[in-house]
Amino acid sequence: MHESAFQIFVNALLANNFVLAMFLGLCPFLGVSGKLDTAFPMGVATTFVMLVASLCAYGLNLLLSAFHLEFLRLISYIVIIASSVQLVEMVLKKYSPKLFRALGIYLPLITTNCAVLGVALFQTAREYDFVQSVTFSVGGGAGFTLALVLMASVRERLQLSNVPDLAQGTALSLMLAGILSLSFMGFAGLGG
Amino acid sequence: MNPTTATTWDEFMEGVWRQNPVFVMVLGMCPTLAVTVSGVNALSMGVATTFVLVCSCALVSLMRHFTPKEVRIAVYIVIIATFVTVVDYAIQAISLTLYDALGAFIQLIVVNCIILGRAEAHASKNSPLPAMINAAGMGIGFTIGLLALGVVREILGAGTLFGLALFGAGFQPWVIMVLPPGGFFVLGAWLLFFSWLERRKLRKQTDKLAEAAQNA
Fold first, then answer.
1. Could you tell me what percent of chain B has a pLDDT over 70?
2. Lowest CB count within 10 Å: A7, A192, B25, B152, which one?
């Protein structure tokens, strides 16, 4: 089945949102979504890494297929992702040390963000061409950012409300994520 | 019990219960929520992850003296990715249905934070045997966590347990439980349950202390 670039974008952004429908990238989703100020830059940084990783993975996959080395795919993808995270880290450290400190440990952890490796693996499994791969990674990144920002806004609000002690912390975040995920199910079928 | 076995047992139980990766540390969330739509999926994911965890911790621990500090994370990741590739091909050979059900999440074991966390926090500082025991404990703890979710979601969402029908034909499945939101809800409910248990235990202790103080 051939999907148009627009369908892929909408699908990755809403109907099959990376975080809320496909369960990719939950660690940063639960970890960095406490404050809106850090959630948005984190989303943008991840989107950038996803785009770079997707581009490299596309080229690499062609190369590996040409030499029949498919079994090296996973190892080479992860090396590529680790190096692009390093790149983002250096750029951020140079141009925005404040943000660099705010994101802290979660920045190097983008390497182990399943959303990034997920993009590379899914685009390979679905045999997307170049344009499709790029839209898929940008859509997925935007979806990740959207979920992160939504979650952060709700959690900022929640700090002002009266929550039973028992439900504080991760349990509350998970329930929230469940409700968000429920509402995102309403987008099902949108991408055709 | 002599002290060596006691510490070994302790090390093993740490991952299974006290530091359970799913319920206490809340690590490795992506596979936890994504594959636990049924008991079988949860079990096989747990076993696959345990295998990768034990093998990579053993290798990391064997290589700990030759691994330069600066590139250690890269070394760990390449080791983990190697074992995941092995598992990926093995599952494909054993059961194609299972392979399709777990999908990309087999390959995504590479980025499971539990494995990298164990490699960095434990295996890189200990000799192979304790590292493997610790890893096995963590892996089994992870499997228990996955099963706890998978079983609940399968019973509520499909009315079956490991594929066997539990209720009569009149059972109306609670479909939302096998859909993505159900994963979040069930894990949230488990966490609530455990914090309730913890709180009850604490209250009992303080009650006992107060009583003792009164009697004295």
1. 97
2. A192
